[in-house]
């Protein structure tokens, strides 16, 4: 019985390692579930476009998403969606078109992962930001999105105003 | 003087040979702003030529759910005939292969299982008992194979079946997973090629190394046994400073080429700052795949490439096609093997310019003509599936 317990624990640890592309402990969901949840809640979507085995995603998870206050901020205020850049899993765009998760990367012209995309509750893109980002970066992006500044200015203009 | 000029022109003739393109045709008869056709499939096998008939398969949602369609065009016809629907339930990622004399075999995922059917006529054969997706086909003479990704426990694995044909009736002679053991991680998007020596090569995406790696195997006994899988990519897996597991590479495609060869082409992110590039490896038959070769030229280097595919023939012609937006909007590009390297990228004339042209599928027919099909996206009018034929002159 003890051996079975150890095996189960080991397989759980292995599974969480394998599936740890989104940062562990965050309530990330798939695209379709996230879009439905955002429409129901009125919360914006934070879409993490990652790749299985991606070093910079791993770096971002460890350096940035490990921050407890950031986790609280994003978990409370966003519907968190994770999309795998190379997956054949299907999703349905707001237009009604069904594509694969990998094809979403084509539509976003994603050249690197991680790619972070902020969407309105209806699934319209607000801004997309590639590459490693710090906790402070994500706090600024949050202010830009939830403060509604994207309606008046680009992210670069907003960040320029802040400095 | 005139004779000298004529001689010079004749000497220069081989250098001036190029693809001569026909006027493009629209394949799908129904379009609309809320109708979304897709040419995606395992090994990107969406067009085939049998005798003098061209067949194109795709999926769209015109009937309110994703369904698979096939349209044909005899060479003498001015247009494609109205398409027929292949499926009853939700259908994805159809493929088609030529059987000769105007007959085809198509395969697709429907209701979570892989299916195949001979056309025209023919009954539907269910290929998989377990949940399956991403089916593909390869035919060479009497040898006909299908491969798909099938659920085996927690993950999918690659299964290859040898098919037999009697009249219009398809059956399975063998059906084997490439590896008998349960997969340790996800496998998918198989590609198949039957080489001139009769061996069948299968390539697929594989995540056993904790990132996506194109892998391959081969059977010399008609799909009864397969050699242990090997990597197509020559870039090793491994973390960087303890981070990640390796660069991404996806959607391998295969073609038989020359006397006994097989060529693989895939999307590869080893240069991660420019997104996916198109890479190739030559091999097959008794040979392992060789060193990886970058396909696109320097003008495409800083641009992400998508939807790569490869077509070859027994005569030695070999082309890779893909789409990228180096000129501002997505265009379809091709590059041809010149014996030592892939040559300069050439935009397919009807599939380039203003607007978005993407998702190429292609084939070479028995006389070496190139047939290319792609999506021409227009959000207001709807997406057209377009077709063009090219002759080398």
List the helices and strands and how they pair.
The complex is a heterodimer of chains A (163) and B (393).
Chain A: H1 2-18, H2 31-41, E1 45-50, H3 55-63, H4 68-77, E2 79-84, E3 90-92, E4 98-100, H5 101-107, E5 115-119, E6 125-130, H6 135-146, H7 155-162
Chain B: H1 2-16, E1 19-21, E2 25-26, E3 47-50, E4 53-60, E5 67-74, E6 84-85, E7 91-100, E8 103-110, E9 113-119, E10 125-126, E11 132-140, E12 143-152, E13 155-166, E14 169-177, E15 187-194, E16 200-206, E17 213-219, E18 230-231, E19 249-257, E20 261-268, E21 277-283, E22 293-294, E23 306-312, E24 318-324, E25 331-336, E26 346-347, E27 356-364, E28 370-377, E29 384-392
Antiparallel strand pairs in B: 1-29, 2-29, 3-4, 4-5, 5-6, 7-8, 8-9, 9-10, 11-12, 12-13, 13-14, 15-16, 16-17, 17-18, 19-20, 20-21, 21-22, 23-24, 24-25, 25-26, 27-28, 28-29
Structure description:
The complex is a heterodimer of chains A (163) and B (393). By secondary structure, chain A is of the alpha+beta class. Chain A has helices at residues 2-18, 31-41, 55-63, 68-77, 101-107, 135-146, 155-162; strands at 45-50, 79-84, 90-92, 98-100, 115-119, 125-130. Chain A has a 4-stranded mixed sheet with strand order 2-1-5-6, with helices on both faces. A two-stranded antiparallel ribbon of chain A has the order 3-4. Chain A is globular, with a radius of gyration of 17 Å. With 393 residues, chain B is mainly beta. Chain B has one helix at 2-16, and strands at 19-21, 25-26, 47-50, 53-60, 67-74, 84-85, 91-100, 103-110, 113-119, 125-126, 132-140, 143-152, 155-166, 169-177, 187-194, 200-206, 213-219, 230-231, 249-257, 261-268, 277-283, 293-294, 306-312, 318-324, 331-336, 346-347, 356-364, 370-377, 384-392. In chain B, the strands form 7 sheets. In chain B, strands 1, 2, 27, 28 and 29 form a 5-stranded antiparallel sheet that branches. The longest helix of chain B is centred in the first third of the chain and has 15 residues, at 2-16. Chain A binds chain B through residues 18, 51-59, 62, 85-86, 88, 90, 95-100, 102-103, 106, 109-113, and chain B through 34, 36, 38, 40, 61, 66, 92, 133-134, 185, 188-189, 205, 207, 209-212, 237, 239-241, 243-248, 250-251, 269, 272-275, 304, 306-307, 325, 358.
């Amino acid at each position: 019985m003890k051996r079975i317990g150890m095996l189960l624990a080991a397989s759980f640890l292995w599974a969480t390692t394998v599936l740890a592309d989104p940062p562990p402990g965050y309530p990330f969901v798939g695209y379709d579930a996230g879009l439905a949840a955002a429409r129901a809640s009125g919360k914006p979507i934070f879409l993490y476009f990652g790749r299985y085995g991606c070093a910079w995603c791993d770096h971002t998870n460890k350096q940035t998403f490990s921050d407890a206050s950031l986790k609280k901020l994003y978990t409370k205020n966003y519907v968190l969606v994770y999309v795998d850049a190379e997956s054949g899993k299907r999703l349905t765009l707001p237009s009604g078109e069904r594509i694969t998760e990998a094809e979403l990367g084509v539509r976003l012209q994603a050249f690197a992962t991680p790619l972070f995309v902020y969407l309105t509750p209806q699934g319209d893109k607000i801004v997309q930001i590639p590459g490693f980002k710090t906790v402070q970066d994500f706090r600024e992006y949050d202010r830009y999105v939830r403060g509604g500044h994207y309606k008046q200015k680009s992210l670069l203009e907003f960040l320029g105003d802040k400095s | 003087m005139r004779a000298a000029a004529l001689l010079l022109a004749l000497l220069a003739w081989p250098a001036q040979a190029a693809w001569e393109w026909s006027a493009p045709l629209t394949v799908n008869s129904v379009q609309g702003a809320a109708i979304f056709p897709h040419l995606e499939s395992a090994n990107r096998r969406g067009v085939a030529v049998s005798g003098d008939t061209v067949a194109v398969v795709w999926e769209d949602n015109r009937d309110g759910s994703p369904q698979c369609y096939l349209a044909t065009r005899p060479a003498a016809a001015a247009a494609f005939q109205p398409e027929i629907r292949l499926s009853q339930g939700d259908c994805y990622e159809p493929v088609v292969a030529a059987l000769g004399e105007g007959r085809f075999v198509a395969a697709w995922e429907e209701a979570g299982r892989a299916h195949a059917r001979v056309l025209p006529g023919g009954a539907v054969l269910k290929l998989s008992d377990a949940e399956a997706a991403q089916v593909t086909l390869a035919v060479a003479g009497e040898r006909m194979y299908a491969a798909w990704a099938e659920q085996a426990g927690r993950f999918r694995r690659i299964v290859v079946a040898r098919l037999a044909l009697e009249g219009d009736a398809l059956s399975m002679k063998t059906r084997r997973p490439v590896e008998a053991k349960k997969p340790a991680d996800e496998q998918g998007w198989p590609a198949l090629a039957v080489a001139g020596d009769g061996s069948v090569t299968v390539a697929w995406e594989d995540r056993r190394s904790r990132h996506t790696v194109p892998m391959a195997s081969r059977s010399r006994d008609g799909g009864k046994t397969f050699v242990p899988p090997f990597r197509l990519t020559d870039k090793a897996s491994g973390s960087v400073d303890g981070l990640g597991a390796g660069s991404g590479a996806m959607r391998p495609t295969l073609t038989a080429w020359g006397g006994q060869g097989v060529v693989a082409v895939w999307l590869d992110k080893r240069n991660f700052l420019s997104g996916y590039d198109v890479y190739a490896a030559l091999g097959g038959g008794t040979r392992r795949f060789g060193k990886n070769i970058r396909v696109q030229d320097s003008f495409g280097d800083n641009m992400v490439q998508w939807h790569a595919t490869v077509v070859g023939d027994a005569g030695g012609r070999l082309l890779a096609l893909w789409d990228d937006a180096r000129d501002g909007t997505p265009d379809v590009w091709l590059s041809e093997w010149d014996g030592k390297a892939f040559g300069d990228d050439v935009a397919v004339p009807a599939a380039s310019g203003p607007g978005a042209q993407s998702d190429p599928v292609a084939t070479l027919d028995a006389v070496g003509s190139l047939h290319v099909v792609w999506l021409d996206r227009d959000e207001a009018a709807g997406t057209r599936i377009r077709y063009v034929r090219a002759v080398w002159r």
